[in-house]
Each structure stands twice: as C-alpha cells, then as structure tokens.
Design a protein that fits this description.
- With 233 residues, the protein is of the alpha/beta class.
- The protein has one domain: 3-Layer(aba) Sandwich (Rossmann fold), CATH 3.40.50.300.
- Helix content is 39%, strand content 23%.
- The chain contains eight helices and seven strands; from the N terminus they run βαβαβααβαβαβαβα.
- It has a seven-stranded parallel β-sheet, with helices on both faces.
- Strand 2, helix 2 and strand 3 form a beta-alpha-beta unit.
- Helix 1 crosses helix 8, helix 4 crosses helix 5 and helix 6 packs parallel to helix 7.
C-alpha cells in the first residue's frame, strides 16, 4: 500500500484540487483510493469542507476528517480559540495507517504549509509524514515568489529527513506572465525536486466528468511512493 502526504508552500495554493487530481488519476489507473484531512478549519459543522470537494470532483468514497474548527486559522490556534480538543499526532497516524491497510493509495492533505501546527505539542504534517515514512507532494503557486517559498519548504523537508515525490503547480493560468513562465522552467532546478505537472486555473470548478478526464493530462502518473520512486531528500 502507499501513502502520500500533500502539502503546500502556503495556504490557498491548490492543495485540495491537487489532492483530487491525484485521486482521480489513481482511480483511472484502477487503484483504490482514500483521502484523509486531519484538520479542517474555516468550516462550521455540517458545511461541506475540502473532503466534500474531493468527493464531488472524483467520486472517492473513503474519506476521513479527524477535527474541524470554525475559524480559518492554523488548526492549533483555531482549536484553542473554539475551546475544542487539539488534534493528537498518534490519532492522525493511526487513522492513516488504518486507511492504508485497505487501499492502494492513501492521500493525506495538510493544512496550509508544511510547518503549520496541527495540534498537541505543535506537531506538523512533517511529523506525520516522518511517523508514516511517507513522502510529500509539494503544491506550489505559479507566480513571483514561488521559487523561494518552494525552496524553503524543500529545505525544511530535507532537514526533517523526508522524501519528496515531486512538485505540482496548483493553478496555472491560460495566459501566464513572465515570472510564471520562468518559474515553470526554473522550479525543478531550484528545488531539486521533479515538477510533476500543473493544474489549470479553474480546475476545481469543473464537474466530475470534465475533471476526471482532465487529470491524466495535467499530472504525470501517480508515483509508487512507497516503492522508492521520487526524489530522495
């Protein structure tokens, strides 16, 4: 079985759509898929969150959300402000392992960037990935500043001893500017991590049929992440 943790250079860079695209591509390859979102913030109880969006776009059935907080903040801050229990690292790891036991691919979508604090004792997605011995997929913005943000995230991952399967640009416009075009050429060299694809701007607004048809053209094949494929860091 395989586990892949999806992180971003920051918030709002397209992690959820990238997670959905990875799920759609794996499903098209005939693989069983589950998705875990350890902490959802900025969404009230009963409202659709990121996992509902992944399900809408792909039809994935097996999804797990472990904690939800109403304010759009880092999960540990949102939990304290709401007076709700903080997420526990061991619970996250156990939930992902349970999914991994029965699925070919389990995707774990983080909150914000790699070092955002998720819960008790300030653990992060980097800690979860280390506990699971799972690689990261980095979702990056297209525009000016993304080379620095991506390089910093990769450096943090390397310091934590993590592997990276690759980078995906989370939203690529139909008319990219000069910085975006240069970033596309430079991103792999600057980070030392392969660029696996780019998602077209507005992909998240597509219906399921269009999204699942498009995913194979946006991304390279989903890496066999626990078989050693991807850049070692």
């Amino acid at each position: 079985m395989s586990i892949l943790c999806v992180t971003g250079t920051s918030t709002d860079v397209g992690k959820t759509v990238a997670t959905a695209a990875l799920a759609a591509l794996a499903l098209a390859q005939g693989r069983t898929v589950a998705v875990c979102k350890p902490a959802q913030t900025g969404v009230d109880a009963g409202e659709p969150g990121d996992l509902a969006e992944v399900q809408r776009l792909t039809g994935v059935r097996d999804v797990v959300e472990l904690a939800r907080y109403p304010e759009p903040l880092a999960p540990d801050t949102a939990a304290r402000r709401a007076g709700l229990p903080l997420l526990d690292r061991a619970d996250v790891v156990a939930a992902v392992r349970d999914l991994d036991a029965t699925h070919d691919l389990t995707l774990v979508e983080g909150a914000g960037g790699l070092l955002v604090r998720l819960g008790v004792d300030g653990f992060t997605l980097a800690d979860v990935a280390a506990d699971l011995d799972a690689p990261l997929l980095l979702v990056a913005a297209a525009g000016l500043g993304t080379l620095n943000h991506s390089a910093l995230t990769v450096a943090a991952a390397r310091q934590a001893g993590l592997r990276l399967a690759g980078t995906v640009i989370g939203s690529w416009p139909s008319a990219p500017d000069l910085a975006m075009r240069c970033n596309l050429a430079d991103l792999a060299e600057v980070t030392g991590v392969p660029l696996l694809g780019r998602l077209p701007e507005g992909a998240g607004s597509l219906d399921r049929a269009a999204f699942t048809a498009g995913a194979p053209t946006w991304l390279d094949p989903v890496p066999q992440v626990n078989a050693g494929v991807g850049a070692a860091c």
